[in-house]
Amino acid sequence: MKPGGALTVGLLGCGVVGTEVVRLLREQADDLAARIGVPLHLGGVAVRRLDKPRPGVDPDLLTTDAVGLVTRDDIDIVVEVIGGIEPARGLVLAAMKAGKAVISANKALLAEDGETLFGAAREYGADLYYEASVAGAIPLLRPLRESLVGDHVHKVLGIVNGTTNYILDQMDTHGAGFTEALEEAQTLGYAEADPTADVEGFDAAAKAAILAQLAFHSPVRAADVHREGITEVSAADMASAQAMGCVVKLLAICERVPAADGNGRNGRGVSVRVYPAMIPRSHPLASVREAYNAVFVEAESAGRLMFYGAGAGGAPTASAVLGDLVAVARNKVNGTRGPAETTYAALPVLPMGETITRYHVQLDVADRSGVLAQVAEEFSRHGVSIQAVRQEGHGDDAQLVIVTHRADDAALAATVAGLSGLDIVRNVASVMRVEGDD
Amino acid sequence: MKPGGALTVGLLGCGVVGTEVVRLLREQADDLAARIGVPLHLGGVAVRRLDKPRPGVDPDLLTTDAVGLVTRDDIDIVVEVIGGIEPARGLVLAAMKAGKAVISANKALLAEDGETLFGAAREYGADLYYEASVAGAIPLLRPLRESLVGDHVHKVLGIVNGTTNYILDQMDTHGAGFTEALEEAQTLGYAEADPTADVEGFDAAAKAAILAQLAFHSPVRAADVHREGITEVSAADMASAQAMGCVVKLLAICERVPAADGNGRNGRGVSVRVYPAMIPRSHPLASVREAYNAVFVEAESAGRLMFYGAGAGGAPTASAVLGDLVAVARNKVNGTRGPAETTYAALPVLPMGETITRYHVQLDVADRSGVLAQVAEEFSRHGVSIQAVRQEGHGDDAQLVIVTHRADDAALAATVAGLSGLDIVRNVASVMRVEGDD
């Protein structure tokens, strides 16, 4: 802290989010000082190139020496909005080692190596806040970390990627195909030229890992998350969902799996997965439109909660960074620190085969008597119980649509393999999970 | 703090919420200790009657001496779940004066006398947390107090009363009338035998006052809130709303009113009101069903956020109390305290006449030419601009439905008075505000 009592912030990165952080630090200076008790002062901004025009940023603050900035004596708080693993990880670790509080918006880093970062924060007694890393401006991590600490979270079910939600919403409301909806999203700036991270579910998987760590106090990395993207979702799938009173969403799901004997409050592990699934239109997540995000939390006492808002964008993300800045600055002023993350529960991440959910299976079948009996026998053989069956079309267009009760993924996979081998099944047209109705 | 390092809690009240708090303190003891750093110990429970059976509560902890409990040397934290103004206010003030941190679930008290309580908390350096006072388990006050502190809130729009939402939802989905829906809500336990506090909007007004204080850092009391209940909402109003693609909800609205010249970020005051209003079905609040609560927040940088969950009930409310308990206990362990509430912005609450919104007006009119011209002239004379007009029925059933652009409430009231005086208007059948579509 400076002699005058101000706290000094070092900013790593000055892209869309960083520029907004600089603007808010300037425009909200009086409010921030009132709420923290001392003024916040921007001490330096580390960038890769000094010659790029950065309107609103004092050129004298710019430096290419990021390591120098995070270890500078007068810096109290480091804000990391670079993204990616390196050099972000090295800088964040160096900052905490030098006694700085750190705020990060970096989902990739938190999901790749949260345990190392949490360990360093504990070792050096440093605050590490990262509200902006999941669901932009939506205050979500703080409620999980602080409001629900006296509760017991069973499940987190979220729409955490705006690009894919925009694409699926267009497919649902306008009957667009995936390629057409993706192109529109790219034209409007909702999707990148290379949309892989979004449409293949990598972005959502990183966020799912961060949410699972927090909700279950267990180590979960992005690589542990079962991941399926939305590129295979077809207009026919959307129509099937509509026929069932459902809508297709890309969901990030983090769930405790109970022990087989029902004993033990922690369950035998956690299931963390990202895939497109049908959810009933009456579910609160179903009405999350366009590029919005929302996360649904089920806790023992609190019941069902949902948090909704803009999941990305410079201003919303910067708003989340500012909220964290006030918290860590207040901690600095009080000579204390916020709650540390721990993975004390140490629940294992279970393989996808042990995940239990419901399924919607669509089969192209021969149009003759006895088909349903054979198909039903195949489900039964693998212990998968059928909730509803519907026949559609006839002759060469005959289809069976089967919705199952809850079953584990391994049994369903075995069922699908068995169905493919039946003479009377011409093609397994689609398999989609059904969530949010239990 | 005890020599062994535990923190001791004194509980005021042992009804539905208090009993749940006792249960959670026992069942979650290990988790709470892990997160706080020291165990929480229940030191005493103040009740009115000692002879009532209280399963799960150690009878040795019970006392009728509430004043003695809140000033006892070994008590660190006081949890107040009595409700009402007195004796709760005296006990909370005595506790803070004695250096105890206080957690209250008491919306009436916070809305009646927040400023006195905030002032006492500042004077005595005591924590005062009250997450459970608004919207039950939904983490809402903490995000407003802490996550959005670096942002600038424009508007809070909420469904904060579960009873009235249940009634309106039944009227909307089953075409029930108000009386019928109220009776059903009473049978199911969603409404009290004397439903006045809910259906006349008193409960929602208290919560609106608390939200406005927090969002705008200004003193707002329940008595300052413009309040209209739902007893006049008719099946015809619901049908009109449906015809417009809207649904009727009892809304608590807290809003900055900009200065006439558009200058000044704080605006010239705040409008705080509770009334039934139409909102578009596409609005996230429209899909809040049954007795659920949800609060929509518009902030400058964060954009649109929504918080959804169970607004009442023993377990959800106790979950919110436990979240506060962990926060204040951590503060005690660290020898610090949380952010104090202030009303530094001191914005005035504006009279209802200065509130600006849109209106849906339904008139029984004579079925002859020239009617629309006369009606339109009356709106125009008071500066209220018409967005849409629709004629329904004919002859003795002829009705005009008018939807206005944004206008102030005084101008609309003058318009309605003028319309009532016109020969061709037989009756002003209904006037309802339209929210959530700007």
Automatic annotation (TrEMBL), chains A, B:
It catalyses: L-homoserine + NADP(+) = L-aspartate 4-semialdehyde + NADPH + H(+); L-homoserine + NAD(+) = L-aspartate 4-semialdehyde + NADH + H(+). Keywords: Amino-acid biosynthesis, Methionine biosynthesis, NADP, Oxidoreductase, Sodium, Threonine biosynthesis. Its cofactor is a metal cation. Its EC number is 1.1.1.3. PROSITE patterns: ACT, HOMOSER_DHGENASE. Gene3D superfamilies: 3.30.70.260, Dihydrodipicolinate Reductase, domain 2, NAD(P)-binding Rossmann-like Domain. Residues 360-433 form the ACT domain. Pathway: Amino-acid biosynthesis; L-threonine biosynthesis; L-threonine from L-aspartate: step 3/5; Amino-acid biosynthesis; L-methionine biosynthesis via de novo pathway; L-homoserine from L-aspartate: step 3/3. It comes from the Bacteria. Pfam families: ACT (PF01842), Homoserine_dh (PF00742), NAD_binding_3 (PF03447). It is an enzyme of class 1 (oxidoreductase). Belongs to the homoserine dehydrogenase family. Catalyzes the conversion of L-aspartate-beta-semialdehyde (L-Asa) to L-homoserine (L-Hse), the third step in the biosynthesis of threonine and methionine from aspartate. This is Homoserine dehydrogenase. It comes from Actinomadura alba.
